[in-house]
Every structure is written in C-alpha cells, then in structure tokens.
Amino acid sequence: MLFMLIPMATGNQTRITEFILMSFSSLPTEIQTLLFLAFLTIYLVTLLGNSLIILVTLADPMLQSPMYFFLRNLSFLEIGFNLVIVPKMLGTLIAQDTSISFLGCATQMYFFFFFGVAECFLLATMAYDRYVAICSPLHYPVIMNQETRVKLAAASWFPGFPVATVQTTWLFSFPFCATNKVNHFFCDSPPVLRLVCADTAQFEVYAIVGTILVVMIPCLLILCSYTLIAASILKIPSAKGKHKAFSTCSSHLLVVSLFYVSSSLTYFRPKSNNSPESKKLLSLSYTVVTPMLNPIIYSLRNNEVKSALSRTFHKALALRNHIT
C-alpha cells in the first residue's frame, strides 16, 4: 500500500507529509487567472468531447466496428488522464491551494504513469486494427472479432499496472530532504526525484530504460503497421481508392504524432535544454491539450462520426419535442 511508504524522520532527514506544487506561481496573478479560464475551458471541452464519443459509439448501430471500440477506450483513457492532473492544477491557479499530501502525490503519479503507458499501447493496438482493416479487409470481421478486440484492449491497459506500481513504489520509498517544493504542476517523476536525499542512480537507470521501452515498443509496432499499410495502399490502382484507404488512418496518425512528439520532447531532451518552465509547457501539450484535440480530430476528420453525432442530436431533439 502506498501509505506505508511515507519516510520516517531519521537523523537530519525530515518526515514529509505533504508537497507543494510550484505550478505557475512565478507568473503574475492576472496571468494565472487567464490560465485558469483557458485550462478550465479546455478541461470542460475535453470531458464533453470524449464523453460524446463514448456515448455516440455505444448508441449508434453504425459505429460498432472494432475501430470505434478502441476509440471508446481511448476516450475513456483521456478522461481519466485529465481527471488525474487538471482539477488539482486548476485549484493551484484559482485558489492558490498548492499543497498536496504525500499519499495524494503518490496516487497522482501512479495514475499518471498508468494512463500514460496504457495510451502508448492502445495507440499501437489501434494501428494494428487499421493494418488488418486495410491489408486484410475480407478477413477483418473474423480476425477482429469481439473476443479478439477485448483481449487486445486488455493487453493495452495491463502494462500500465506493473510500470506504475514499480516506479511509484520505488520512488516514494526513498527518504526525502527538508524541502518539499515540486517545481511542476503535478507530481511527475523527475521533479519529485530532485527532492530525494539518497543515491538514485539505480532508479534513474531503471526509469530511463523503462521509459524507452514503453515508448519505443509501441512506436515500433505503429511504424511496422503503417509501413505495411502504406505498401498496401500504393498497390491500389485508383487515386480515389488510395484516398479512401488513407482517410481511415489519418485521424489516428495525427493523434499518434501529437502524443509521441510532445511526450518525446519532454522526456528525451538533453538536461541542458530541459528547463523546468519549458518542460511545464511541453507537459501541458500531452496532458491537457492533446486529450482535448483527440475527439475533435476524430469528429472533424471522420464522416461516420460526424453523421452519428448528427443523428444522435436529431434524435435527442425529436425526443425533447415529443416530451414537451
């Protein structure tokens, strides 16, 4: 249990019971208020957009293919990702409530790792789904049957548990020094690690290797899938056929690019070029902005989703008129 990992006071080490999230405290109050309004708007759009995707893909009979099953999983994941980070960040901006308990910090980090790892593997699973749909269209319903898609979704979510458990438990078992100020807007591993007063070399090696594996394995699977997809599309004789095949992948490709570019720039930049303020900005891109953009991308670039949203809206409107 995480609450058993609270370090006890020994020698010159102070028992830390809470952390202080520095967040954007260096900015003027007026700027923080504007950031609060901007992030609150993004947060509400994220919750609304992803909730609509989940509801529409569940309710509409035209959106029952495996692709939309995985899209529901992605939307659910994005909602969880936002709930872990954004509410506390909004509190630090508007109420200046910058404190977070030891257990709260550990819990936030745990679920941040869990959802982050799950997203990497889920995006790879969605790439495999597109590969089967384009390269084996006749066998697609058989290969991606109900049992297979459930197993693939479970396999995408599962790696988050061991990664989050090991990394969070290990990090919070270290003794912390007297300072408890985390120079970030949430409890991420690098800024919390800087507060540790012990030799963390072994943990840092594990963290680097683990991050590379978690990022690179799904990334390689995505690259392999899209290499085969590209080869298959090039064999299609008509330009219209090529465009139709590519359009089924374009939304996923854009989402993958946004997620991997922002997260890679955050965690794989040289330390000399990775100031805390620049890292905060990059972290905002994949923790706050990308979850908002995903449902927008899938809605605007997918005619089936747009049609389903329109049908759902008209049904709701007709039901309302019937009741009144």
Automatic annotation (TrEMBL):
Pfam families: 7tm_4. GO terms for biological process: detection of chemical stimulus involved in sensory perception of smell; G protein-coupled receptor signaling pathway; sensory perception of smell. One of its GO terms (cellular component) is membrane. It is a multi-pass membrane protein. The chain crosses the membrane at residues 34-58, 70-90, 110-131, 152-172, 205-233. Residues 49-298 form the G-protein coupled receptors family 1 profile domain. Keywords: Cell membrane, G-protein coupled receptor, Membrane, Olfaction, Receptor, Sensory transduction, Transducer, Transmembrane, Transmembrane helix. InterPro entries: GPCR_Rhodpsn (IPR000276), GPCR_Rhodpsn_7TM (IPR017452), Olfact_rcpt (IPR000725). GO terms for molecular function: G protein-coupled receptor activity; olfactory receptor activity. It comes from the Eukaryota. It is found in: Cell membrane. Belongs to the G-protein coupled receptor 1 family. This is Olfactory receptor. The gene is Or10a5.
